[in-house]
Amino acid sequence: MRYHVIALDLDGTLLTSQKTILPESLKALSDARAAGVKVLIVTGRHHVAIHPFYQALQLDTPAICCNGTYLYDYQNQQVLASDPVRPQQADQLISLLETHQIEGLMYVDNAMLYPEDSKKIQAHVARTNTWAQLLPEAQRPVFKSVPSLRQSATEAAAIWKFALIDSDVPKLRQFTETVESTLGLTCEFSWHDQVDVTQRGNSKGARLAQWVAQQGLTMDQVIAFGDNDNDLSMLETAGLGVAMGNAADAIKARAKLTIGSNEQPSIAETLYRYVL
User: Does the active-site annotation cover 9?
Assistant: First the structure.
């Protein structure tokens, strides 16, 4: 068997637009685990926002969260390794957000925080919560509105990332250049209108490579699936980096293989062809 690890992005990749996992994917991944292949979620999400998918897949591996910022052990509910944003960096970033009038969420500890006066973020959270109401309470993502992100940053044990949302994509791109040049943080698009800001050096690929090495394996033995900019670091370093058909052309061009969209059983078909 050439591939011993399957690394999976969630949104736009393993998940359909309805935030479900196709039954064909569940079956193929179950077969892979039965064959001894390790299945790993590698996501931009906070660990509190992947409970239903982790449990549906019946995984026993840790999850790589917030674009590689930390490795989370679900069995023991603890962070195994992390490189969070420092409080001083968070304070400086919040000042830039205020200056450029860009809104976002701050992912900390065990929750995702947003300013209570942010109507744009409130609407984003409301859409997610509408979907989350279908889940058991213990599996719902944890959002909290706060009077001040700045104050909350001083109280958090760890600041995993900022998720900045704006429909003006050129404005977001220009802002990322400012953040990277002045604060030395890493900015990656995780959705068409969302930029994630993390500590410099954090990436899905870097954290995945670290975990793979700890298993006594190499990245050549990994097959990775993704669809967006924040997936490139693992798609380009995995033995087989697979772009979804719904990914942008720029992502497809840098992957080793392009398959069908996240609405089709293409992940399952690829696993049966290359892994099982």
Answer: yes
3-state secondary structure of 165: strand
Q: How far apart are CA 200 and CA 144, in angstroms?
A: 26
48 in Cβ contact with 142 (< 8 Å): yes
Residues pairing with 106 in the sheet = 113, 162
Query: In the chain, what are the domain boundaries?
Result: 5-83+202-274, 87-198
Q: Which residues of 215-232 are buried (b: 16+ CB within 10 A; e: fewer)?
A: eebebebbbbbbbbbbbb
| SS (HEC) of 194-255 | EEEEECCCCCHHHHHHHHHHHCCCCHHHEEEEECCHHHHHHHCCCCEEEECCCCCHHHHHHC
What's the CA gap between 80 and 63, in Å, rounded? Answer: 10
Nearest to 109, CA basis, from 133, 144, 136:
144
Of 9, 11, 227, 231, which one is the catalytic site residue?
9
Nearest to 207 by CA among 86, 80, 53: 80
- Provide the 10 A C-beta neighbour count for residue 150: 18
The pTM of the whole model exceeds 0.85:
yes
Helix (H) or strand (E) holding 122: helix 119-132
Cα distance between residue 98 and residue 64, in whole Å: 30
| Domain covering 87-198, topology | 3.30.1240
pLDDT in tens, 102-149: 999 999 999 999 998 887 888 888 888 888 888 888 888 999 999 999
Domain 5-83+202-274 has CATH 3.40.50.1000: yes
